[in-house]
Structures are given as structure tokens and as C-alpha cells.
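May I ask you to comment on the folded chain given beneath this request?
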Amino acid sequence: MNVPVLFEQITDGSLPAGHFYAHMPSLGLTTHGFGLDGARMAALDLASLWIGEKHANGERVAPTGETLFSTL
């Protein structure tokens, strides 16, 4: 399953410099990690656990549709 991930640098001082959020809008999940690699690994771990839990409970995970990104 391919899951779109949006990375956003955390600049509000809630975490030390260099941390990024990893948003997965199609799953309704957000996590964070140090650097893009850390955020990507955290997203992969979280998505794997979340999807595994859904499957364990007999729940369906909807396939991801087209993902578009824009800024305002």
C-alpha cells in the first residue's frame, strides 16, 4: 500500500531544531522525527502498526486516492 506523506519542519519550539512532522492525511495520522529520514521512519512505523491493527480487527483500510498539495 502506498501512503502519501507530507513533511513539515517543526519551528514552534515544541521540539529541538531539525525535527519534522510527517502527516499522513489519508490515514488521519501524524508523527514526527529528527530530520526527514527520522520523520519518514516514524511514519513508516506508525502506518505499519495502524494498518496491522486495522487488519487484526477485521477492518478494511481504504486505498489511497489521488493526492494533491498546495500552499496558501
About this structure: The chain has a mean pLDDT of 95. Residues 35-56 form the longest helix (22 residues).
